[in-house]
Amino acid sequence: MSKTLVLAEKPSVGRELARxxxxxxxxxxxxxxxxxIVTWALGHLVELxxxxxxxKAWQKWDLLTLPMLPEPMKxxxxxxxxxxxxxxxxxxxxxxxxxxxxxxxxxREGELVARWILEKAGWKGPTKRMWISSQTDRAIREGFAxxxxxxxxxxxxxxxxxxxxxxxxxxxxxxxALTCKYNAQLSAGRVxxxxxxxxxxxxxxxxxxxxxxxxxxxxxxxxxxATWRDGQGQARIFDREKARALAGRLAGKEAVxxxxxxxxREVPPPAAYDLTELQRDANRKYAYSAKETLSMMQSLxxxxxxxxxxxxxxxxxxxxxxxxxxxxxxxxxxxxxRDLALSIxxxxxLQTKYLVNDAKVSDHHxxxxxxxxxxxxxxxxxxxxxYDLVVRRFLAVLLPPCVYEEVRLTLEVDGETFTARGKVMVxxxxxxxxxxxxxxxxxxxxEDEREQALPVLREGExxxxxxxxLRPGQTAPPARYTEATLLTAMEHPGSQVEDREESRxxxxxxxxxxxxxxxxxxxxxxxxxxxxxxxKEIVPTSKGVQVVxxxxxxxxxxxxxxxxxxxxxxxxxxxxxxxxxxxEMRQYASHLVSEVKASDASYTHDNQTxxxxxxxxxxxxxxxxxxxxxxxxxxxxxxxxRSVKQTTNARxxxxxxxxxxxxxxxxxxxxxxxxxxEKLSDFKKRREKAGGxxxxxxxxxxxxxxxxxxxxxxxxxxxxxxxxQNRS
Length: 728
What we know:
This protein has five domains: 3-146, Rossmann fold (3-Layer(aba) Sandwich); 164-192 and 480-502 and 525-598, Topoisomerase I, domain 2 (Orthogonal Bundle), CATH 1.10.460.10; 213-268 and 402-474, Topoisomerase I, domain 3, CATH 2.70.20; 275-397, Topoisomerase I, domain 4 (Orthogonal Bundle); 609-725, no CATH class. The chain is 38% helix and 20% strand. Its EC number is 5.6.2.1. Belongs to the type IA topoisomerase family.
């Protein structure tokens, strides 16, 4: 009997597909049933070949060997996942496998994952494509009931392959050129470099900013406060003597209401989440990094199956999803969402005008709950927080607008104008989905005049001027980026692009990177030591500032991504040839390398220590990581690094604050700001005694090591040694 092979992108997804398809028999890298065999990749199993696989001379990083322009470009099996590739290839060539279903993630990269595997394995048989937006049993069954010929997605594959080859040609060549030219571990790329340029430009604007002092004049009347304004409506007075004279002249005078305007305003609910908006809100509310949010979202999608596909850039759903909304509302009618969800469920018809827009749905619709019954107790704390954000936004967008009455007053005091404003809630509408801590509604239009509760007033009413106060202030520099605001800047990088057409293309294609890649780009800036975190703020290092100036000008601007994405979109639509685009990228890479070679700029390590590298002897660099400090060898080929100190999740037994782990080897010690000190060996004994044995300690240290940056982490090395000694 012939069978159909199903190729998933990850083992977790493969297991769920196998369960729905009745595949229960375990095999080498697969699960098999009567009709189907389900196998999986481990993300990518195949990648573009490394430079040395084309030419042995390219194994050595040398300016003389650049540019590297292999033609044609080849692929290679990733060594770490070669065993799974061999298992997939064996299944593809099994005698009873007559058909293949591609069930990798429904998007550009998911298509590339599958097609490269099939090309490398030599599959020539009939192939179909499953395209779904959630991992519920129903979605999987419907996906298999509506399979499409894989050939319909050929252009999407060509677009993905063109993007990958272009990034190889430009990224590897420029990275090697910068590293060899300046004898430092430097890298550049079409998304990474303009993103870094955003951060560097903002820091330069902050450093060049010169604050100006000003005063605002406020008067206290009967039950409310009013603010002085000049003829242009400005509240700030930059002449202190003028401000004091004005306050003195108006003291003890009478205020009269010249105009009183009441306007009824409606604020529609915010659109449903796409990944970038979700990452923004998670960073603002919970300080989660974009990477952490994506990871938790992926778990809610794959493991819990309670949310739809995360890597989406759409904030709407299509009309064909509307019939499923009642079930989705019912699925979230638990705990604190129950009453609101059931009240929405009773509406006939459902309010969907702010959720449905076929024209704004791309490959996947917005992130919304699935029909799967939720079990909140199974979620981790972080997963619970992300789920809460999505559910509240989903319920909010199904509610009517928030309605309030805005009141604006204009008063006159001895010929001078004062204003005040207030707001009275009429119908909370979608605000009912949130508690009082929600703060995104109606950002302050004027920081010099706050909204307030106003008494009942009428035009012509007079008041004696009570307290008069001059409030000093200073103009503020631009704010440093947080991950939330950086994600916004990456999504809308128009300030970097002067050309209107390129700016329009950037907006249409979603800006710098994609929702799926922005988190990795930000993480790479940290791991390359181009930026560091100070609280929630992202600050460029000296290395980051220098690399932006050393990189070719084209790479510093988001305009390059605008042009690329426009053409990659045309390839996906069959309007442009992949080969033509890639050939241009070869020429472009050659041009960029020539530009780096011809530069007379220089690079300086200003974080160099006097500690020699134990492997190569060069002086180590002191760098700040997301969790502490490290010493790193500047020689790319050496790659030595070790942790100096790192913030851990270990809590001080005295004050319960997080402790730092300092030192190396047997001398490693936990230290707290309160003065508490504890050797790592003593910490292990204490954890074993309190937590029930070595397994608990091993689990704890494994978790801690995973949170440390890759490299010769002192904790990771100590963990490996300890686990080896205590392996049962």
